[in-house]
Design goal:
The chain has two helices and eight strands. Strand 4 and strand 5 form a beta hairpin. The protein is mainly beta. It is 10% helix and 54% strand. The chain has a four-stranded antiparallel sheet, with no helix packed on it. The relative contact order is 0.33.
Length: 131
């Protein structure tokens, strides 16, 4: 009896609950819907079914002292944007993430690298839809 009582009352390891919306809804999950790659300006459309999206950008400059701007456009114009900047001799890989609560529909991701012909950034964009 003593061992059974101790086993029941013994503090258990804390339970970690993932901040994952699929746990709450029981059905929705993050789904990758697009991957785009490039080295200069680009505008790519995508369609989401859910009410949330995530856009991950991984980039590395091919020339020093440059930048990259990412904008997400919907039917009402720009909905979100962020920049990556490399100064001096910094040639490191950098990432950014944009997450939006929105409506189902068609959106575009715009990658903008400065127009100087020698500036190029090797980038990858991954788009996720929550449905």
């Amino acid at each position: 009896m003593f061992i059974l009582t101790v086993a029941i009352l013994w503090p258990h390891a804390p339970i970690t609950v993932n901040d994952n919306d699929s746990y709450i809804s029981g059905q929705a999950t993050w789904n990758q819907i697009a991957i785009y790659n490039g080295t200069s300006d680009d505008l790519r459309p995508f369609h989401i079914q859910g009410n949330k999206m995530r856009v991950y950008i991984t980039a590395q400059p091919l020339t020093a002292d440059t930048e990259l701007k990412c904008q997400i456009y919907g039917s009402d114009g720009a909905t979100s944007s962020d920049d990556l900047t490399w100064n001096g001799d910094d040639m490191s890989v950098k990432t950014m993430s944009l997450q939006l609560k929105t409506q189902p529909g068609t959106y575009s991701v715009n990658i903008d690298v400065p127009d100087t012909p020698t500036n190029q950034v090797q980038w990858t964009v991954q788009v996720f839809d929550y449905y």
